[in-house]
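Hello, quick one for you while I still have it in my head. Could you read through the record and tell me how the tokens relate to the sequence? No rush at all, and the record is pasted right below.
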Amino acid sequence: MLGASLLASLAVSASSRADAPARTNGTDPRTEDREHTIKAAFLLNFIRYATWPKTSFEGPESPIRVLVVGRDPFGQVLEATFRGEKVRGRAIEVARSAEVPIEITAHVVFSGELAKGEREVLLARCKAKPILLVGEFEGLAQDGACINFYLQDQKTRFEINVDALSDDGLELSPDVLKLARIVRTRKEGG
């Protein structure tokens, strides 16, 4: 469980690295670099406070696999952020695929820029599997992704689809959930 000061630092550590908007439309590469440095820090924290079913891993020291699908907005930022990090004894490995793979074996998938049809394919291939699907496109959480970044008051924020997490067999710390805008895809009682 996160302490109150650590919880505050989860939000502040990512947002204080830069005052960049969540989407910059490529106007200034340095701003976009800062934006994705923030998002990489959030991804690391999501990994730290996520729980996957034990059957998601081949063994106790198997790595946590992160896959960026589509246009990669991070460059080497993910590797720099994850370098030397271990989460519950597991290293973090990063892979990339310009297209949606037929079979996804990653624990975390970040949806880079994809055509709408490809995004739907990605959502379908991750659905009901222990994959923490994260993106940065309006409506992605409502469509079934677990976490989606958005812009509010020129700061990077995130929303969490708690129904998608549950359907995928994943858990996030309640303290992380407190920081998020909660999205539901099922009606109450359903």
About this structure: Confidence is low (pLDDT under 50) at residues 1-9, 11-28. Residues 26 and 137 are 15 Å apart (CA to CA). The two ends are 29 Å apart (CA to CA).
